[in-house]
Design a protein that fits this description.
The chain has eleven helices and 13 strands. The protein is an alpha/beta fold and 306 residues long. The chain is elongated, with a radius of gyration of 24 Å. It holds the Pfam family ABC_tran.
């Protein structure tokens, strides 16, 4: 069984009478790329600030690397690297100067680490260019470079692809995957873009209005947002009965609008059509709906709000 890197139990933060983080129970295991998904204002950054102790909690517990005692937690946090709400870097310094400054601050003796990091994040050729003149993507990559300067075991990234162009997103994605696959770094990455996190994460937590609505694996996400047929008829009860009786079809859902979502025979809709025709059941709609992660996310948080 893999080591739990992060565990929270009923972790909470209130501002006035309102919960920004509402009794969140979460587990991140060693080797995970954990995608933390929520719309803007859902509580993602507040949660991250709580687990990195940049903000005090109102209730609940945090465990890092199995440690829960405050003194042990403080030591455990030294094994974490984080970029929260943008990197704290000096605008009039070069990439090398910025990393050298923090190398001295952190007491890291290996001067070669600066060049290693710059090469890793693709900034080894920036020369004398000042940070203030970097593109958004370059700034984000240098922020990650700063966060991994001390070889952290756990990397936390708050909206690292926000505002980036497609090439910048690809560069950040490749850095995260390389850290995870090559060095075994556990990564916790927040975003409001589920479709992008689906390309790299193996586990997900979906937050809405401060509540963790759902935790699921990559396989579970793919299953729940998979392709399906939509069948609408003038008699849904009879339609369901015939699907079960004549096709032995049991993977379906009946929705409140009268539609039936069918997860079998997706590439053979004519068989469903034939059964309905033979039974004299009039079909008003029969179509294939492709996998849509955004629709799944909207349905999930929409249902939670209701």
């Amino acid at each position: 069984m893999r080591e739990n890197i992060l565990e929270t139990a009923a972790l909470s933060k209130k501002f006035g009478d309102n919960y920004a983080v509402n009794h969140v129970n979460m587990t991140v295991q060693k080797g995970d790329i954990y995608g933390f998904i929520g719309k803007n204002g859902a509580g993602k950054t507040t949660f991250i600030r709580l687990i990195t102790e940049l903000m005090y909690k109102n209730g609940g517990d945090v465990s890092l690397f199995g440690s829960t005692h405050p003194k042990d937690i403080h030591q455990a946090r030294k094994r974490i690297g984080a970029v929260i709400e943008g990197p704290s870097l000096y605008p009039n310094m070069t990439a090398h100067q910025n990393l050298n400054y923090y190398l001295l601050q952190k007491g890291i003796p290996d001067k070669n680490r600066i060049n290693e990091v710059l090469e890793f994040v693709g900034l080894e050729n920036t020369g004398r260019k000042k940070y203030r003149n970097f593109s958004m993507g370059m700034k984000q990559r240098l922020g990650i470079g700063l966060a991994i300067l001390h070889h952290p075991d756990f990397l936390i990234l708050d909206e690292p692809i926000n505002g980036l162009d497609p090439m910048g997103i690809i560069e950040i994605r490749n850095i995260i995957l390389k850290l995870n696959k090559t060095y075994g770094t556990t990564v916790f990455i927040s975003s409001h873009i589920l479709t992008e996190l689906a390309l790299i994460a193996n586990r997900y937590g979906i937050i809405n209005n401060g509540r963790l609505v759902k935790e699921l694996s990559k396989e579970e996400l793919e299953s729940e947002s998979r392709r399906y047929l939509v069948l609408k008829t003038l008699n849904k009860e009879a339609a369901v009965q015939h699907l079960e009786s004549f096709l032995e079809l049991y993977q379906y859902e009946v929705h409140s609008d009268g539609s039936i979502r069918i997860f079998e025979y997706i590439d053979e809709p004519e068989k469903i059509s034939q059964v309905m025709f033979d039974a004299g059941i009039i079909i008003t709609e029969l179509k294939v709906v492709e996998a849509n992660l955004e629709e799944y996310f909207i349905d999930l948080i929409g249902g939670e709000q209701k």
